[in-house]
Amino acid sequence: MNSSARPGDVPARPTSRDVAERAGVSQATVSLVLRERWQGRVSPARAETVRAAARELGYRPNLAARSLRLGRTRTALVVVPALSSEFFAVMYAGAARVAADHGFGVVLYPSPEGIGPAPDPFAHSGATLDGVLASSMAAPALRSLSEGGLPLVMLDSEPRDPGAAATVNPDIGDGMRQLARHVLGLGHRRIAHIAAEVDSWTFRERARELTREVARVPDASLVRTERAPLTVRGGLAAAERALTALPRPTVLVCDDDVLAAGACKAARRLGLRVPTEVSVAGFGDTDLATAVEPELTTVRLPAAAMGEEGMHALLTVLRGEPAPGTVLPVALVPRGSTGPPAAEG
Amino acid sequence: MNSSARPGDVPARPTSRDVAERAGVSQATVSLVLRERWQGRVSPARAETVRAAARELGYRPNLAARSLRLGRTRTALVVVPALSSEFFAVMYAGAARVAADHGFGVVLYPSPEGIGPAPDPFAHSGATLDGVLASSMAAPALRSLSEGGLPLVMLDSEPRDPGAAATVNPDIGDGMRQLARHVLGLGHRRIAHIAAEVDSWTFRERARELTREVARVPDASLVRTERAPLTVRGGLAAAERALTALPRPTVLVCDDDVLAAGACKAARRLGLRVPTEVSVAGFGDTDLATAVEPELTTVRLPAAAMGEEGMHALLTVLRGEPAPGTVLPVALVPRGSTGPPAAEG
DNA sequence: CGAGCGACGTTATACGTAACACTTCTCTCT
DNA sequence: AGAGAGAAGTGTTACGTATAACGTCGCTCG
User: Per the record, which residues fall in region Disordered (chains A, B) (predicted)?
Assistant: First the structure.
């Protein structure tokens, strides 16, 4: 099949030249036919011959060669900080769907959680990429990407992020504002923040907004902030620390549903009932929020819409058009995990 | 920088030839130096000059060209059926860790859940791959891969899967056997199976083994099997169907913790207490199993070990050595969601 | 009747990298 | 002094694809 194929070798992958030889045409013709560029340049009969030859040989184009030749790949990279929260899985799915609709492929890169700056996704990836859609990552980790001149769209990052060609954000400040007012309105005054230890704009913004809202109520205070890795276990440990310290908070505001689930568990372990003795709230409104008992009060983040809008923005940038910064609305979803604080004993 | 750079153009990415020109050496020397193959072939001084030039230009090798030249990419594809179960995220992490230890990169491909055969990951992916590590997928979906002559290691698939160069499985039959004996031993006789609607060996095996074990106990029977997508919501709906049909099962054996969490919720909705009125058990022992109340009785699957062993097997195959089929042990973890059935009323 | 045109293909080349085969120069050993 | 070995590089080629530029027919039309 290949002139270089020695006996005993694994059969080398057929190339377009092999197909050409079998079909009795030139390699150029094979390329034209298989790329559907043959209208008016190759007779229908010949085109069919070529397709048959390709089928018989099991020909698959060498994507490395194609990428080299074309200088692009119609493939985007999606970077997420972790997969332990379903939120990112949904976001990815949204991005992948839009990409597929436009003939683009997507490669997913979960940056190892909490291990500081991510390793360079290019270091060992055979993927050549047209653009990057990145979520909630520390800027340093992405420096190497934007330096490579690769179009970058940031999700959940600061609205006017330099180095990003566009940004797509949920209105996270508004979300935290709604949540804070909800718990303050219920009468809570000693508030603890179970914060994600991921260093990104979205989490800094939540902390800032919570602090601000609490400060607006005279006798309320943020009695404690605990940082936790974005897992149930992490939320559990952090909430245990918060609930055993004095003064004990009456509500745990968590940066993610995963942390909130852990916090509920911590409360149970300490013999505290939710929400009568301690309230818990999270962010995301993923499946997990309604899987636990009581169901979580949470801020619904438009995960799928973020992925979709982000990919749209990236595709726009790749077409050379400017992409606007987008801010998506969020909504507070009050459920059973928050209630009025117990009367002081 | 590039001779083809026209004024007004975006600056073209520098090539190794640009670096060579700037350093005053040949392109071959640049390649030798940057790939660390210069010992005894290029003087240390010159090597440093080359590195400096590369740094100044912000040179990054064109991976498409490198792949084309080398015929390999040191990159593997990991295929998982869904990201809605944390199980696969952990498995991926294990595989990625081992790959990184061996200088390999990993690309993750989440095959859209439940949408039948997966779209061809190659169709639009710029990635050129050395091998594939695939989990729990329907065989047809992977046909196009193995046909491409790509080394394929299957996780959670039938032990002697043709077309797979190696397989790594948890001893899933043993796991279901232990779980079945556990609930039968507790006295349950009317058993329902909440099955994942993913069509793969591991789930077929669970169904088979459950059926077999139930058949060994004279008055026990598998009163119902409900199929569900691998989400909390899916488990909820399926469990509601199972619990409202007659005869009502006293235990719900679920194919995954995600389904079990949904099942617990269904029981609550129907006013049934877990485990006193209905028992629930799952598979996986992910974070979710202990996040819900009561904590789930489950079969601990070695997710991380599967990813690690699978990647080891793949790397072995890529070295041209034969890889043995591996079976990993599993363990029953009895917790609060299972108990003796209520006395017949 | 010959110029011109459309249909049908082919030839040649470039993409950026890695590595084989080769040259040149310097130094050592006998 | 001459052979030989090693150091320090360079010229060239190939990887497989896509496409611009170029033939070569047979036919129509002025």
Answer: 1-21
